[in-house]
Design brief:
single chain; 169 residues; alpha+beta; Cyclic Phosphodiesterase, Chain: A; four-stranded antiparallel beta sheet; three-stranded antiparallel beta sheet; 6 helices; 29% strand; disordered N terminus
Length: 169
């Protein structure tokens, strides 16, 4: 029973963390808009969500066989969603992202919109910001991702990198 409870508390994702130069631009904005989310995970693009990783043994083998990866995404202006979420969506590189998802999850992988979350919807209530002030710092943000991180979170603790795939590490 304790194992079943622990597994429900643990979440696993595959993540593309922003490289240091781009992280230096995005993190101060995330810290100001959403200090709670900033405290639990660095700026990133989620590649595969927890519910997509149910066949972990197969996915782990596919990750190990990928070799080096290189995906470049250029992001557009910040967008505000109806739930209060503020995010950046790629204007270039979404096709590469979807192809990588299919390489890991299989050809029937659902399309998932790549994005960088600046303000998570669960933390958006009462947050004030000026998009016109934020947008210039993020204009044309381009990142090349070379590493896929397997991350895990227990409860509401910070996400921890368990393993990395892709670049020669």
């Amino acid at each position: 029973m304790a194992g079943a409870t622990l597994s429900r508390l643990m979440r696993r994702q595959l993540t593309l963390f922003l490289p240091p130069d781009q992280r230096a631009v995005v993190e101060p904005i995330r810290q100001r808009l959403d200090p709670r989310q900033h405290a639990v995970i660095q700026a990133h693009v989620t590649l595969c969500r927890d519910g997509e990783l149910v066949h972990w043994e197969v996915i782990s083998q596919r990750l190990a066989s990928l070799g080096e990866i290189s995906i470049t995404m250029q992001f557009g202006e910040p967008q505000v969603l109806p739930d209060g979420c503020v995010l950046l969506r790629p204007t270039h590189g979404a096709e590469q992202y979807q192809h990588l998802r299919q390489s890991i999850l299989g050809s029937s992988a659902n399309v998932h919109g790549a994005h960088i979350t600046l303000l998570h919807p669960r933390n958006a209530a009462g947050v004030s910001y000026n998009l016109a002030e934020i947008a210039p710092a993020l204009a044309g943000l381009t990142a090349t991702f070379r590493t896929i991180a397997v991350i895990e979170q227990y409860g509401s603790a910070p996400w921890l990198v368990q393993q990395e795939f892709g670049a020669a590490i």
